[in-house]
Amino acid sequence: TIHASIEEPHLGVLFTKCRKCGGKVVQMRDAIKCTECAWIDERKLSTNYGNTDFVKLRE
Predict the structure, then answer these.
(1) Closest CA to 35 of 20, 50, 47
(2) Which of 20, 16, 21 is nearest to 44 (CA)?
(3) Whole-angstrom distance between the N-terminal and C-terminal Cα of the chain?
(4) Do you know which Gene3D superfamilies this protein is assigned to (predicted)?
(5) Res 56: pLDDT
(6) What angle do CA 25, 31, 35 make, to 5 degrees?
(7) 11: CB partners within 8 A, 6+ apart
């Protein structure tokens, strides 16, 4: 049996794009908001959200 947890503050989403249109998002407390279509999506965001460098795979 494997158990996973995201209860610690540093565990959670580090980077994401809009689930609806794929646009850029901004952090709002415990959610993200798309800057293109205004979609709001609740997520468990890491305290490190947005502070990690990711390889740019495509636009």
Answers:
(1) 20
(2) 16
(3) 38
(4) 2.20.70.10
(5) 61
(6) 25
(7) 5, 44, 46
Pairwise CA distance, residues 55 & 45, whole Å = 20
Cβ atoms of 28 and 38 within 8 Å: the answer is no
Give the DSSP letter string of 5-49.
---STT-SBS----TTT---EEEETTEEEETTT--EEE--B-TTT
In this predicted model, what pLDDT tens digit does every residue of 14-56 receive, in sequence order?
A: 889 999 999 999 999 889 999 999 999 999 999 989 887 766 6
